[in-house]
Specification:
By secondary structure, the chain is an alpha/beta fold. It folds into 2 domains: 121 residues, 3-Layer(aba) Sandwich (Rossmann fold); 116 residues, HUPs (Rossmann fold). The chain is 37% helix and 20% strand. The chain contains 9 helices and 10 strands. A 10-stranded mixed β-sheet has the order 3-2-1-4-5-10-9-6-7-8, sandwiched between helices. Belongs to the universal stress protein A family. InterPro entries: Rossmann-like_a/b/a_fold, UspA. Pfam families: Usp.
């Protein structure tokens, strides 16, 4: 399996530390990217001595995080980077050479900008995942979004987990059999490339796709949703805000991906 290059944004907060730990567990190589804060912020984080400037405190903060991650993951290649630009710009730039970006679940303008312009899939991590749970992929069409499907299969394979694919239909369920057949046909080309990954397909009925997907994701290690546009759709945004496990938003496949089928044109969630 090709090396997995992961970037994590780190500002010293509890949310960012959760993201950094998640990123370290996923990565073969990891970059911690920190955009400098003001002196008051470093003082609040306990990283500012009387004679220190903000740059010194920034380096101390990110180096301490790097050391803690190396203690948990001996042998992991970790770089600690103090950026020379604003957080959103620094993180978007870092995604140009990464397979994955991990952010803490704290929202705000920085996260919104990064989600819109990141050059790789983004995982929003809030709590420690259930490492034994399945990967859940939410679809809004019976023809899967190829980058999201590749990402979900790859994530399940890396974890040794099952993949559960969920497609939500209106409550009457009249289109259920046809949707399941189309989805099974679309998956046929993918199974040889990921033969080691157990797959379950669920066609669910419900007026609220986000609520049904959140129910399906209970106990999951990761939820994956496709996102073809700059801003996450309503379902994706609701899942990011409310899921109890990390959520991956996938617009484009990572550079290392080898898609077994061309990416179909469908709408993102």
């Amino acid at each position: 399996m090709p090396p997995h290059s992961v970037v994590a944004g780190y500002d010293g907060s509890a949310a960012a530390w959760a993201a950094a730990r998640y990123a370290a567990a996923e990565a073969d190589t990891l970059r911690l990217v920190h955009a400098p804060l003001d002196r008051a912020a470093y003082a609040a984080l306990g990283q500012l001595g009387l004679a220190d400037d903000a740059q010194t405190a920034a380096r101390r903060l990110v180096d301490a995080a790097r050391a803690a991650l190396l203690h948990e993951h001996p042998g992991l290649e970790v770089r600690a980077v103090v950026a020379d630009r604003a957080p959103a710009a620094a993180l978007v730039r870092a995604t140009r050479s990464a397979d994955l970006l991990v952010l803490g679940r704290y929202g705000g303008r920085t996260a919104a900008h990064v989600l819109a312009y990141a050059g790789c899939p983004v995982v929003v991590a809030g709590v420690a995942p259930d490492a034994t749970g399945p990967v859940v992929l939410g679809l809004d069409d019976a023809v899967p979004h190829a980058p999201a499907l590749w990402f979900a299969f790859d994530a399940a394979g890396r974890r040794g987990a099952a993949l559960r694919i969920c497609h939500v239909l209106p409550p009457d369920g009249a289109a259920g059999p046809d949707a399941r057949r189309r989805l099974s046909e679309a998956l046929a080309a993918w199974r040889p490339a990921f033969a080691e990954v157990p797959v379950a397909v669920d066609v669910l009925a419900g007026l609220d796709p986000a609520a049904r997907l959140l129910d399906a994701a209970a106990g999951a290690s990761l939820v994956v949703v496709g996102n073809r546009h700059r801003e996450p759709g309503a379902v994706a945004a609701a899942v990011v805000a409310n899921a109890t496990c990390p959520v991956a938003l996938v617009r484009d496949a990572p550079r290392r991906a080898r898609l077994p089928v061309p990416s179909p044109s469908i709408r993102g969630m």
